[in-house]
Amino acid sequence: MASRHRITVAVAGAGGKMGSEALRALAADDRFDTVAVLVRDAGQAQASGQYTCPVYDDPERLLMEAHPDVWLDFTDARSVVHHVDRCIAFGVSPVVGATGYTPEDVARWNEACLRQGIGGIAAPNFAIGALLMMRFAAEAARFFTRAEIIEMHHDGKKDAPSGTARRTAEQMAAHREDAAGDPAAHRVSAAGITVTDAAPARGWSYQGVPIHSVRLPGLVAHQEVIFGGAGEVLTIRHDSLSRTSFMPGALLACARVREVRGMVYGLEHLLW
Ligand SMILES: NC(=O)C1=CN([C@@H]2O[C@H](COP(=O)(O)OP(=O)(O)OC[C@H]3O[C@@H](n4cnc5c(N)ncnc54)[C@H](OP(=O)(O)O)[C@@H]3O)[C@@H](O)[C@H]2O)C=CC1
Ligand SMILES: O=C(O)C1=N[C@H](C(=O)O)C[C@H](O)C1
């Protein structure tokens, strides 16, 4: 019987919290072969003997020598932008787990993927509960013109606000304008709040939604979206209590990324 081709994956940021969790999840799933990892210091990682596949600290060398089907990136905002540009140039499908990139990066990746005839997925959050939280927040934004986001993360997180908070605000803004059929509703909402450089305690305004970022030891990844109306408040909250919450979504993206074309932004596009 012909053996099924396993999807070959390279994990960038393998030495980090998410990268190491992803390596464990990939090893436990027979759809995948982890064929290479990208770490900061390949010599040191090789000497430690902790990896069973080839180890690199040069992304171009990894892409040339290992040429994986999929590049799963859990590095950071600065590195991921360069990595994904290089992946697409090499015809390797990126699954972008790292956050902190801009809408302009996503647009450039989309065009580059389309030119290469390949797919990519950039997913600010892989957890199903977080995706539902964003969906419910978008739905609620049709009915409330005022809302604020509080995102709370471990104190090792480098980027702020979180990719999830940005994506939530984007989805809320899109629904608000669509539902109202009146872009003025968005302007009223933005004008009704005092988020300015002169009032930093009021958060950072993105898409008309103030975002507040909390970084504390003991936290993993949490978000509240609070809607306020006349005499009532609606709070939608999600908690990732363990990084295992991100793994089914990350593996789904790795399994499906070569079926899409262009850069898909948000895992929800594979789910509903
Ligand atoms: N999409 C999702 O569902 C989720 C996304 N994330 C995102 O994933 C990213 C990683 O998070 P987390 O694992 O907690 O962070 P960590 O800091 O624990 O891990 C990042 C790792 O990447 C390494 N790294 C960074 N740049 C490079 C590079 N150029 N070459 C090789 N290695 C590099 C870091 O090395 P060093 O320490 O030396 O810098 C570190 O080991 C973040 O952007 C985070 O927001 C996190 C959770 C869920
Ligand atoms: O850094 C993290 O931990 C997380 N990052 C992602 C983000 O920026 O939204 C996803 C999740 O919140 C965990």
Automatic annotation (TrEMBL):
Its main location: cytoplasm. Residues 167-179 have a biased composition (Basic and acidic residues). (S)-2,3,4,5-tetrahydrodipicolinate binds at H154, G163, T164. The active site is at H153, K157. Its EC number is 1.17.1.8. GO terms for cellular component: cytosol. The keyword Manganese does not apply. Keywords: Amino-acid biosynthesis, Cytoplasm, Diaminopimelate biosynthesis, Lysine biosynthesis, NAD, NADP, Oxidoreductase. It comes from the Bacteria. InterPro entries: DapB_C (IPR022663), DapB_N (IPR000846), DapB_N_CS (IPR022664), DHDPR_bac (IPR023940), NAD(P)-bd_dom_sf (IPR036291). NAD(+) binds at G13, A14, G15, G16, K17, M18, G97, A98, T99, A123, P124, N125, F126. Residues 7-126 form the Dihydrodipicolinate reductase N-terminal domain. It catalyses: (S)-2,3,4,5-tetrahydrodipicolinate + NAD(+) + H2O = (2S,4S)-4-hydroxy-2,3,4,5-tetrahydrodipicolinate + NADH + H(+); (S)-2,3,4,5-tetrahydrodipicolinate + NADP(+) + H2O = (2S,4S)-4-hydroxy-2,3,4,5-tetrahydrodipicolinate + NADPH + H(+). Residues 129-271 form the Dihydrodipicolinate reductase C-terminal domain. It is found in: Cytoplasm. It holds the Pfam family DapB_C. GO terms for biological process: diaminopimelate biosynthetic process; lysine biosynthetic process via diaminopimelate. One of its GO terms (molecular function) is NADP binding. Catalyzes the conversion of 4-hydroxy-tetrahydrodipicolinate (HTPA) to tetrahydrodipicolinate. Homotetramer. Belongs to the DapB family. This is 4-hydroxy-tetrahydrodipicolinate reductase. It comes from Alicyclobacillus macrosporangiidus. The gene is dapB.
